[in-house]
Structure formats: structure tokens, C-alpha cells
């Protein structure tokens, strides 16, 4: 099937892209990696009047760390994060653990992190991480530039707070401290399916006690979520000895946090291969396993810091 006819422009600057989007109205679409957009156009579920190809704007192909913040430009591909060393510290490790779950190598070579955020699919790994870490979405539009917290940006399946004529130029993440451990666990029917449920976690601890927990939920509602109730249940909890997330006692704090995330934070819907009971159980299990992974990572980082201070 071929897409419906459309006009095409390839601007060289952000200002030119914004001007083009302004003339295209609500039926203009931005092309970066195109891994979702092109398929939807071929199936004619999306019929744009204008496609604005931003791949010739060098300013958007930038991965920069400055003042404790990582800025990911709109043209930075998924594969840029496959190495944990691409981004400093625990944030790079979290990205590396998450990115391997995104489709397969050809998709990761072309698709972009910011494009995934712009698409706002509930099963997107990047969207949930952005919400969990309080990332900022940076946009340029006819009325100038503006920033919006990721938690306010996502409004539903494929729905965002972006306005017609606006271009997402980057997403900014705060770097994670060296005393933070990270985890990411995903459950899906097959390797090439979207996640039925996934979770990202960042645990900061001092003296073996959790001082801050951040948990992002993937495909647990109509938008990415931060599991605030589960996070609150973990504050002040001891990290404890290493635990196998697949054999976690039911009374362990991580298991309780998983159940809280499923019962109080998530709002799943039934799917053809997963009813509500199954999905609730999967959320609880995946969150608990992710927390075990993050705790193990935190202990390793704490030992490394102790060794460096001696």
C-alpha cells in the first residue's frame, strides 16, 4: 500500500522547520527517524498534507552534557545509547539497559529517542524514563521556545501537550548521582512485540538506606506513569543484601512496592493476551524485579565509591 499524496520540505534550520510546520497546519508531520510515521502513512492511518524532514538540521543532532544535565537532540538515534559510556554515570547505564528492548538493530539505527517521546506511545521505554526522571521537553514554535515537564507533556495514547506548528528540539535529563543505582526490566510476549509491561527504576541510597526512589511504568496506563505511591513506600527502606528478583519473598519491601504500583499507581486495560488480573500481577512482578536490579547496581556503585575514597 502506498501513502496518500503529500508535500515535502527539508529545512536547514529550526526556524525554517517551524515556519514550514506553521504553513502545514494540523496535518503537517515531522520526519526524523520515521520508524512509526512511515508505517502509519503507508497504512493511511495518517494522511499528512505536508511532511517536514528535519534530518538536514545539524543543530538537532547533538548529545551534550552541561551543568549536570544531558541534552538529547531530536536527531540522536536510539543506537547512540547502546554503550553505557555514551552518557556519564548511572544515567548512561539506565539508557543502555532500556535501549536493547527497543525493536531490533535496523530500527535503533534510524529511529530517535526524541521521536519516540513525540510519538507518545504508552509502550515507549523512553517516555516512561523521561517521566520517571523529571525530564524537560524543549519545543520551538511560532510563539518562541518553551519547556514542558515530561509528566505534563504526555496526555494519552499518541497525544501530547504539543501545539500545532511546534517542533520538539530536544529532551533534557538531569544526570544521576554516583550513589544512585538503576534498573530496567521488560516483559513482552515475543522479542519483537511491544512491552506488555516494563519498569525503570533509580534508587538513591546513603548508608544503605533509600533516600529517593524513582519508578517509571511502561504500558501500565494510557500514558507513561511515575509510580509515586510505590516510591513513597520505599523511602527510608534499607537496601539490604543482594536478592534474586525471581525468588523475592512476598513480604520484602520491593515486593510490597510492586503490589502498590500495580494497585495504586497503574491503570492498565485488558488486552487480547492479558486480562486485568494478569496485567496487575505482571506489573507487580516487573516492578519488584526492577527494584532488585537497581538495588544491586546501587550496592556495586557504593562499593566502588568506598574503594576510591580509601
Automatic annotation (TrEMBL):
<dbReference type="InterPro" id="IPR051312">
    <property type="entry name" value="Diverse_Substr_Oxidored"/>
</dbReference>
<feature type="domain" description="FAD-binding PCMH-type">
    <location>
        <begin position="1"/>
        <end position="178"/>
    </location>
</feature>
<dbReference type="GO" id="GO:0071949">
    <property type="term" value="F:FAD binding"/>
</dbReference>
<dbReference type="InterPro" id="IPR005107">
    <property type="entry name" value="CO_DH_flav_C"/>
</dbReference>
<protein>
    <submittedName>
        <fullName>FAD binding domain-containing protein</fullName>
    </submittedName>
</protein>
<keyword id="KW-0274">FAD</keyword>
<dbReference type="Pfam" id="PF03450">
    <property type="entry name" value="CO_deh_flav_C"/>
</dbReference>
<dbReference type="InterPro" id="IPR016169">
    <property type="entry name" value="FAD-bd_PCMH_sub2"/>
</dbReference>
<dbReference type="Pfam" id="PF00941">
    <property type="entry name" value="FAD_binding_5"/>
</dbReference>
<dbReference type="InterPro" id="IPR002346">
    <property type="entry name" value="Mopterin_DH_FAD-bd"/>
</dbReference>
<keyword id="KW-0285">Flavoprotein</keyword>
<dbReference type="InterPro" id="IPR016167">
    <property type="entry name" value="FAD-bd_PCMH_sub1"/>
</dbReference>
<dbReference type="InterPro" id="IPR016166">
    <property type="entry name" value="FAD-bd_PCMH"/>
</dbReference>
<dbReference type="InterPro" id="IPR036683">
    <property type="entry name" value="CO_DH_flav_C_dom_sf"/>
</dbReference>
<dbReference type="InterPro" id="IPR036318">
    <property type="entry name" value="FAD-bd_PCMH-like_sf"/>
</dbReference>
<dbReference type="GO" id="GO:0016491">
    <property type="term" value="F:oxidoreductase activity"/>
</dbReference>
<keyword id="KW-0560">Oxidoreductase</keyword>
Amino acid at each position: 500500500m502506498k501513502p496518500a499524496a503529500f508535500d515535502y520540505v527539508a529545512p536547514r534550520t529550526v526556524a525554517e522547520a517551524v515556519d514550514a510546520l506553521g504553513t502545514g497546519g494540523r496535518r503537517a508531520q515531522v520526519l526524523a527517524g520515521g520508524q512509526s510515521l512511515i508505517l502509519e502513512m503507508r497504512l493511511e492511518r495518517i494522511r499528512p498534507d505536508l511532511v517536514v524532514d528535519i534530518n538536514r538540521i545539524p543543530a538537532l543532532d547533538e548529545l551534550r552534557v552541561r551543568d549536570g544535565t544531558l541534552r538529547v537532540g531530536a536527531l540522536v538515534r536510539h543506537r547512540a545509547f547502546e554503550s553505557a559510556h555514551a552518557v556519564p554515570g548511572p544515567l548512561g547505564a539506565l539508557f543502555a539497559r532500556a535501549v536493547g528492548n527497543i525493536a531490533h538493530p535496523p530500527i535503533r539505527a534510524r529511529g530517535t529517542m526524541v521521536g519516540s517521546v513525540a510519538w507518545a506511545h504508552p509502550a515507549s521505554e523512553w517516555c516512561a524514563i523521561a517521566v520517571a526522571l523529571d525530564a524537560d521537553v524543549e519545543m520551538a514554535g511560532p510563539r518562541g521556545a518553551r519547556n514542558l515537564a515530561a509528566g505534563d507533556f504526555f496526555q494519552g495514547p499518541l497525544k501530547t501537550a504539543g501545539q500545532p506548528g511546534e517542533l520538539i528540539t530536544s529532551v533534557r535529563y538531569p544526570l544521576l548521582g554516583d550513589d544512585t543505582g538503576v534498573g530496567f526490566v521488560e516483559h513482552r510476549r515475543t522479542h519483537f512485540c511491544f512491552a506488555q509491561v516494563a519498569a525503570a527504576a533509580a534508587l538513591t541510597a546513603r548508608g544503605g538506606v533509600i533516600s529517593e526512589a524513582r519508578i517509571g511504568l511502561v504500558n501500565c496506563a494510557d500514558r507513561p506513569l511515575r509510580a509515586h505511591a510505590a516510591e513513597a513506600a520505599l523511602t527510608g527502606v534499607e537496601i539490604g543484601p543482594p536478592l534474586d528478583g525471581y525468588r523475592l519473598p512476598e513480604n520484602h519491601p520491593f515486593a510490597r512496592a510492586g503490589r502498590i504500583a500495580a494497585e495504586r499507581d497503574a491503570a492498565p486495560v485488558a488486552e487480547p493476551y492479558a486480562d486485568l488480573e494478569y496485567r496487575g500481577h505482571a506489573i507487580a512482578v516487573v516492578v519488584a524485579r526492577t527494584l532488585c536490579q537497581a538495588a544491586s547496581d546501587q550496592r556495586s556503585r557504593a562499593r566502588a565509591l568506598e574503594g576510591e575514597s580509601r
